Every structure is written in structure tokens, then in C-alpha cells.
Amino acid sequence: MKINKYEENELVLHKFGYYESSSSDFYNENILDIVIVPAVVFDLEKNRIGFGGGYYDTFLKKIRGGNKKVLFIGICYDFQIIEKVPTEEHDVVLDFVVSENRIF
């Protein structure tokens, strides 16, 4: 049984070694409700330092440009949260950061 048109999408190996949807609809904010965002470190203002390529910031800006509100949530361990990380103009602030001890 097919639940929706996205169920049959194939995953393709990305050049960085992870699998992603082969569908161009993957970037359609109408099918997203939540994006889990990784990082090396987060701060108390929900900023992050990622892995250095700016890929998530580019993706999140594209999604945030749509009409639907999509939640951006960082998931980490408590030791990855610091008071302040340096930010740049292109950085996207998350909606929530969740660790094993707190949510902000």
C-alpha cells in the first residue's frame, strides 16, 4: 500500500557518503514539518557551528523561504552547548535545541 507519493522515492548516495532522496520534492517545504539539524556545538541563542561547508544553512534558508512554518531542531549532548558561538550573516538560527538535560 502506498501511503503517499514520497514513499517510493529511492535513496541515492551523496558525494559526501550519506544517502538522500532522489526526488527534487525533497526541498519542498510543503512535505516537511521538522528538520533535525546536526552541529559540532550550539549556543544558548540556538546558533550552531556546523561541519564547515554551509550546506545546512543553505538548505534551511531555502526551506525557511516558504510559506509553511517548518521547525528546525538541533539535537546534541549537553557538553555541546556553550554560552555563545561566533555567527555570520548567512547563519540560520534554530527554533529549538534539545539535549539530554534541557530544551531551549
TrEMBL record:
Gene3D superfamilies tied to this protein: NagB/RpiA/CoA transferase-like
Claim: Magnesium is one of the keywords in the record: yes
Gene Ontology molecular-function annotations: 5-formyltetrahydrofolate cyclo-ligase activity; ATP binding; metal ion binding
GO annotation terms (biological process): folic acid-containing compound biosynthetic process; tetrahydrofolate interconversion
Domain of life assignment: Bacteria
The protein's Enzyme Commission number: 6.3.3.2
Cofactor field: Mg(2+)
Catalytic activity from the UniProt record: (6S)-5-formyl-5,6,7,8-tetrahydrofolate + ATP = (6R)-5,10-methenyltetrahydrofolate + ADP + phosphate
Record bears the keyword Ligase: yes
Pfam family, one: 5-FTHF_cyc-lig
The entry's keywords: ATP-binding, Ligase, Magnesium, Metal-binding, Nucleotide-binding
PANTHER family in the cross-refs: 5-FORMYLTETRAHYDROFOLATE CYCLO-LIGASE, ATPASE INHIBITOR/5-FORMYLTETRAHYDROFOLATE CYCLO-LIGASE
The family this protein is said to belong to: Belongs to the 5-formyltetrahydrofolate cyclo-ligase family.
Name of this protein: 5-formyltetrahydrofolate cyclo-ligase
Organism the protein comes from: Leptotrichia hofstadii F0254
